[in-house]
Amino acid sequence: MRAIRVLLSLLAAWLAGSAGWGSNAVSNGSFDADVSGWTAEIHVSVAWSAIDASGSPTSGSAEVTNSYPTKNHGSGIMQCVDLPIVGGATYDFGGKVFIPLGQDREGSAQIGLRWYEGAGCTGSYVLPQPRRETETLGTWVELSATEQVAPVTASSVLFLAFPSKREAGSSLIVHFDDLSFRKTPFFEDGLESGDLRGWSSTTQSILDLPPYADPSEIAGLFWPYCDSGSCPSPLQAHDGLDFTPNQNLAVMHAAAPGVVTNVDPYFNPGNGFWQVNVAVAYAHDHTHGLNYAFEPMGDSEADRDAQLAEIDVVVGQTVALGDVIGRLVVVGAHAHLHFGLFEDFDQVCPEPFMSDAVRKELTDLIQSEPGHETWEICN
Fold first, then answer.
1. What is the pLDDT of residues 216-246, one digit of tens each?
2. Exposure winner among 189, 251, 263, 294, fewest CB in 10 A?
3. DSSP assignment of 319-334
């Protein structure tokens, strides 16, 4: 079994396996101090403005001026979003726009996306190109779109924010603020819906199986769940359970039935390695969900693609208890599966949701490591 010194060497590097879910991938979308990170198209100028969508005295907006000479033309600012796009996955985008009164040209304010086949917004672009727009004058308007399905061939996306000028000549000015692009939240129907009919507040047994299919393929549970300040020495806070395999391609399966909501390759800047996150919303209430982060500990795109090839599920697929999720590719010495449980979008201690059999199996697994005899599943 792996010695405790291995854990010490990894403390500063590992991050939670779900990093990247739900966070805004647009750089400088709130324009707090400048307009850095954005590129202006031809016949467009962009400047920082103190006018802020929320009225904040310490932030501002991007003032975009479209001076395109011909009529019926939209031009503005753009940014290639720094988030690998997964074809078939769903994404949300939005922002706030303000068209000042008293202008000599009319038109609309628009935000939208342009999908590309190549990484870094290269190669051919792929239809459709979702847009949101308004012609409302003199007040901030929020534009948003949810669950936009990325084309199956898309690998990257360009975020666009632009005034669309109706007449030729002169200019149209629009302010943009709070621009955002993110993966659709973990659950397709979250608490924001206000519909409580399908939800359950019980701590019923959700995890009726461990996340691995065969105990003989697992070397140990070497990092438990622990809150800050309650972790057994020498561990730090950790929002899931890390299972280390003793062979390549250890099979991971559904610890609970549900619907796959994410299959997400993610480059973890905390440790410099690729991982593939798989999210499964629990079938019986959709308030809970499982996070499988396959971490082969490889830093190349080939390592990422090798792990993706071993994932057996796709977004939207229904999985039954025990269905195979995927196999963990072992590239580095510390490859592992980070497994966590979500409740209302937050990762929580999974132990109260385990069947008695799973609780005993995982307790025995973690305490079998010398020096870990007093460790618990959640500390």
1. 999 999 999 998 777 888 888 899 999 999 9
2. 189
3. E-TT-EEEEE---STT
